[in-house]
């Protein structure tokens, strides 16, 4: 008789982050959503690329800078073509990259977690205290654990039904390695 069980992990963020900021047309703070379109502007041999976000109410646009004043030759040719083609998959990838929002000083709307059926949130990694503070600003309780592996183990040991691991692009591969290592330890 075998007592081995198989656990599979999939790390998925279903939608782009929303931005919450003042909309000049609405005259108040509003939600901006990813249009899945890029704006590409060339000036001589310098290039600017933005991901276009749009106010949900009045459709006023907000450009989030991906590349600014970069030489065309410094951007991979395939990625450059995808920008020109308004590749939706690439737009979604950038819309899930938290560093893009930090670089543009865009306030990601975490209020969407409030109505979700979530029992607990644990923030982890090198910026866990920053993220915990950000969640606290919108009255969402969270626990902080800098060690990703320890955070996952604690959640699993406490018997959570579903464990969702949301990571930024920088931590994606290291978190995947932690999950694979934990899967091998059972």
The sequence of SSEs as H and E is EEEEHHHEHEHH
Q: How confident overall, as mean pLDDT? A: 81
What level of helicity do the residues show? Answer: 25-40%
| Structural class category | alpha+beta
Strand content: 25-35%
Alpha plus pi helix count: 6
- Describe the main β-sheet briefly: 4 strands, antiparallel
Strand order of the largest sheet: 1-2-3-4
Low-confidence stretches: none
Strand tally is 6
Shape verdict? globular
For the CA atoms, what is the radius of gyration? Answer: 19 Å
The rounded distance between the terminal residues' Cα atoms is 16 Å
In total, how many domains does the architecture comprise? 2
What this model shows, in words?
The model has no long low-confidence stretch (mean pLDDT 81). With 186 residues, this protein is α+β, with helices and mostly antiparallel strands. It has a four-stranded antiparallel beta sheet with strand order 1-2-3-4. It has a two-stranded parallel ribbon with strand order 5-6. The protein is built from six helices and six strands. The chain folds into two domains: 85 residues, no CATH class; 75 residues. Helix 4 links the parallel strand 5 and strand 6. 30% of the residues lie in helices and 26% in strands. The two termini are 16 Å apart.
